[in-house]
Design goal:
There is one protein chain. This protein has one domain. The chain is built from 3 helices and 2 strands. The chain has a two-stranded antiparallel sheet. Helix 1 packs across helix 3.
Length: about 70
């Protein structure tokens, strides 16, 4: 199986992408671009008031990167 360019929860993340997820998890501010990437990739959900939180897939990425 070869990975395409589409963002899927099973894809390998870059160090920058992992940092974005760690920042969201720790409730540190992230750029709009970073937040949009995380939401489109399925790793985060954004509320109408702008709050962002990791989805289960995002939490799994954060948990697996800290092993």
């Amino acid at each position: 199986m070869s990975g395409g360019t589409g963002a899927q929860p099973s894809m390998q993340l870059t160090d920058d992408q992992r940092q974005i997820l760690r920042d969201i998890n720790a409730t540190r501010p992230v750029s709009d671009e970073a937040a949009n990437w995380a939401v489109k990739a399925g790793y985060a959900a954004q509320a109408e008031d702008g709050d962002i939180d990791l989805t289960q897939a995002g939490r799994q990425q954060v948990d697996s990167s800290s092993l």
